[in-house]
Design goal:
alpha+beta; homodimer; about 40% helix; globular; four-stranded mixed beta sheet
């Protein structure tokens, strides 16, 4: 029943529309569950002034709203381009099952998007990154986790 | 003028409050510009049913809204815990200048949060990841980028 190519074409059309309508960069994504589209996203970084409004994040948030859950366990994501590390993390936290992608991070980088550089940076030891990550009050950071650890009826994710 | 320890304590207090008020996991973050707090975030994954509502993402979105921009170029982020790869990506896309963090990804993993695993996965070759990333219609994915490349008055980010 499921037409993977059709879903991908729709993700790519969303990407083209995002540029043509000046929503943001050339990226689109769709979340599919049981052969049906349950979430859609287009890059809206510049139009909504939100650097996290990548197509995949927008599509995941849309699917979660539509399905009333923070877990997309049995869902697939169709992305017009290989997800960046931010979207990669969102995919893992949402427990997306499979990711289909069309263009690659190398294409994104070729056209001026920093995907490749961020993939390089995220894999580096913390002291070698271009953005400084500085430890501060390390001993106090355990406190919220200890409260969490003893909390009754906590909802894990 | 800037009191780094005070900002970090506020981020940690936001993290504890997130657990105590059942907003979500034990994470808080603050964005600071010119010695003033311009954005605040608490983990709200479970209460808002949004897997992307990590403290850092929420704080970055809040700061962008308050400053009316998608670029936080001269801002620092104070996070109660070392950011996960999703938040790492958000930090890079927002052009955050420096990141101060208290607890580490190892503490997060110890208390049941998948940060360490996702850091491991994001650095793997695409074919070795636990979540399948599958190329589909690779030749069509260039189309939105080519539209982008020829667009007049495009806003880069």
């Amino acid at each position: 029943m499921e037409n993977k190519e059709e879903f991908m074409n729709q993700a790519i059309e969303l990407a083209s529309e995002s540029v043509l309508k000046s929503y943001g960069g050339p990226f689109g994504a769709i979340v599919v569950k049981d052969g049906k589209i349950v979430g859609r996203g287009q890059n809206k970084v510049t139009s909504t002034k939100d650097p996290t409004a990548h197509a995949e994040v927008v599509a995941i948030r849309d699917a979660c709203k539509n399905l009333n859950t923070f877990l997309l366990t049995d869902c697939d994501l169709y992305a017009s381009c290989e997800p960046c590390p931010m979207c990669f993390g969102a995919i893992y936290w949402a427990r997306i099952k499979r990711v289909y992608y069309s263009a690659t991070q190398h294409t994104a980088s070729h056209f001026g998007f920093n995907d490749g550089w961020i993939y390089h940076e995220v894999a580096l030891p913390i002291e070698n990154r271009q953005v400084q990550f500085i430890p501060l009050l390390p001993e106090q950071g355990d406190v919220p986790f200890k409260i969490w650890d003893t909390k009754q009826n906590r909802i894990e994710y």
